């Protein structure tokens, strides 16, 4: 998505809902663009293939609100809006906040996973969504590295399709559960954000995110991970299916960095470092990856 296309989509979508886009400012420019509008409204601009997931996000947010789960709230309007080849949704701006803690994530996931599945289709978890597309876009990686990652993807996907060992009961899963998406409000309380990957699936997928941030990237300390497991009541690393889902999460993090490094030289060293780690060039875990975007 170019900088010219996003404002055009935003302007036309705002006009469709009689919203004022004068003075709109970008909050985050990435695969999905986030813009702040006057009057406490935030617009999310997604690529044209995200219409189904945008509809699901709106429905899920409303369902979670009805269940008493604190979550980012969509505007009461007929949305998503498709304009200028983009999918736009509108949300109430979240009050002042910061990243939550690993304990916030554990408590939020315990609450979420205890809910019965909703009576509408939320889709089924696909841990490998968009990974082939990311690899195709990762032009800064060598041909050998890209082929190795593709082979890893094919192996993990085959193991996923063959079925995971018995684990926790299927539930609604957030899909991208980390402290940036379980935020702590300045006035108190927490809030779930970014529902794009919400679906039905093994709750272990949400738990693996914190485990990988501990034992792979080093962003979470062992003591913090112990507290996470104590609050949630389960240590996903003891499950026989952990290597498959942890491998999928690591691959997502590597291909995400590699895709964006193709357009931003600042991230190329980190993207290559992540590949080198997976390929055994950087010693044992944790590897202390640096965040991008």
Indicate the topology.
Layout: H1 5-16, E1 25-29, E2 33-37, E3 41-46, H2 51-66, E4 81-83, E5 86-92, E6 97-99, H3 102-113, H4 131-137, H5 143-162, E7 171-173, E8 182-185, E9 190-192, E10 199-201, H6 204-215, H7 222-232, H8 242-261, H9 268-278
Antiparallel strand pairs: 1-2, 2-3, 3-5, 4-5, 6-8, 7-10, 8-9
Helix pairs in contact: 3-7, 4-5, 4-8, 5-8, 6-7, 6-8, 8-9
Structure characteristics:
293 residues; alpha+beta; Phosphorylase Kinase, domain 1; Aminoglycoside 3'-phosphotransferase, Chain: A, domain 2; 2 domains; five-stranded antiparallel β-sheet; three-stranded antiparallel β-sheet; 10 strands; globular
Q: What sort of overall outline do the alpha carbons produce when their principal axes are compared?
A: globular
Number of domains: 2
**CATH 4th-level superfamily of the largest domain:** Aminoglycoside phosphotransferase (APH), C-terminal lobe
Largest sheet: 5 strands, antiparallel
**Number of separate strands:** 10
Mean pLDDT: 95
Strand content: 5-15%
- N/C terminus separation: 16 Å
* SSE run: HEEEHEEEHHHEEEEHHHH
CATH class of the largest domain: Alpha Beta
| Sheet/helix structural class | alpha+beta
Strand order of the largest sheet: 1-2-3-5-4
The residue ranges in which pLDDT falls below 50 over 5 or more consecutive positions are none
- Radius of gyration from the alpha-carbon trace, in angstroms: 19 Å
Number of helices: 9
Helix fraction bin:
40-55%
